[in-house]
Amino acid sequence: MSVLQALDIGLAFLVFAVAAWTIFARGGFAATVGYVVYGLLLSLVWIRLFAVDVALTEAAIGSGVTGVLLIGAAARLRGAETEADEKSLRGLPRLFIAGLCVLVALALAAVVLLFPDSGPSLAPQAMRHLPETGLGNPVTAVLIAYRAFDTMLEKAVLVLAVVGVWSLAADRYWGGAPGEARAERPEPTLAFLAQVLAPLGILVGIHIFWVGADEPGGAFQGGAILAAMWMIVMMARLTEAPRTSAFWLRLALVAGPLVFLIAGVGGAIFAGRFFAYPPGFAKPAILFIEAFMVLSIAVALPMLVAGPPRREPRADRSR
Amino acid sequence: MTSATLAGLVGAALVGLGLYGLIANPQPLRKILAFNVMGSGVFLVFGIVARKGAAAGLPSDPVPQAMVITGIVVAFAASALAVALVLRLFEETGRATLSPDAWTKPSGEGAEAE
Question: Which of chain A's residues have a Cβ under 8 Å away from the Cβ of B68?
Answer without folding.
Answer: 51, 54, 57
